Amino acid sequence: MKIGINCLKVNPNYQGGVNTYVHGLIQGLIKTSPNDQIVLFVHKRNRRIFNQYCSSQRVSIVEMAYRNAIHTRLLNRIIVLLFSYRVFRVYNRYKFGNIAQSISKSCDVIYSPSATNFPYYYSIPSVVSLHDLLHLNYPSHFTFTNRKFRGVTYRLTVETAHLIQASSVYIKNDILANYKKIQPEDIEVISEGVDLEYFKFNNYQSNKNNIQLPEKYLLYPAQAWKHKNHINLFMALRILKDEYNINIPLILTGALTQNSAQAIIQFIEKNHDLEITHLGLVEKDYLKHLYKQATYLILPTYHESSSLPIYEAMACGTPIIAANIPAISEMSEVFEINLFDPTNPERIAQVIRSMWKANSTVDHQVIHNSKIIEDYSWDNIARKYTAVFKKVCL
Q1: Count of CB atoms within 10 A of residue 1's CB?
Q2: Is 135 exposed, middle or buried (0-12, 13-18, 19+ CB in 10 A)?
Q3: Which of 77, 275, 333, 377 has the most crowded CB, counting CB atoms within 10 A?
Q4: Assessment of whether the complete model's pTM goes beyond 0.85
Q5: 3-class DSSP state for residue 104?
Q6: Whole-angstrom Cα distance, residue 127 to residue 107?
């Protein structure tokens, strides 16, 4: 079987998220599918991040003549705003149909990790990972144009994909609730994975960030999106300092370029007596080092489809404090996770305070999670994807 992976929407400059996911899956497929060929469809600007797979005899890289230039993105949005959904469909078939057919001739099944089934009109089975429906769950976090654009591209994805992958039962149910034509059997739940070998050892040597890490600290790796809920976490730390005289260090990583960046910067500047350090984007090895040294990973987010940081922290032997939201609550049925109400800074503060000295409880959680996380290696996850690819090809 020739498995195509559509990497045309993968941003070479993005860290984490989809990029971590696609690399983990490719590596897992290389190890676990010895009889299958893997074809990566890339473009000129992102090819460099996939060249590492050239050494595998079972991987071929096809550079497509695709340009996601500013004028192309602008034209797409103008069509969405001024014309009907039908016009958008016709335009995409005309503009990108040749790319879809070129891909179709090169493999037996095509998989897209980037939330849409672009370029949509394949003549072979297509599988797409629909990570979340944030534009429907939190519409105020998006501009009208972006909300409208996500609406039509997700609709076209659901209508053209042969099968959709969801990372949790929660996301599967959310898709079913919002897209009435899709059937439960058209959505396959496959969890995210983790590179167990990589996260097992802390081999970080240098400290380019020139940061002296606290002896104990909370770690929150996240982009500055509003739904990541940084501010309620900050307020919880403020409560702990003011009411209990406990100043708990917090280390933050992730780009400060999204819709909550200014609020984060302002809070840190106004509350300089709190031990909040934002490192911005950090290299992969240093993030692993931060995981290993952290007292807890903390995730106050309002919304997740699943959580790569939770898997990565558990692979590092780091305990978790996290929001009691559907996807993470679902994970807590298998893993030991300390949950809190993310809407209430007082409750967040209470859980942090209670866990800060809970050594025996934490030791038990780390031992439990370290055993269970073995099932979530990318090798095991890749086997599930291979089964799905074979299923749609029947």
Answers
A1: 14
A2: middle
A3: 377
A4: yes
A5: helix
A6: 13
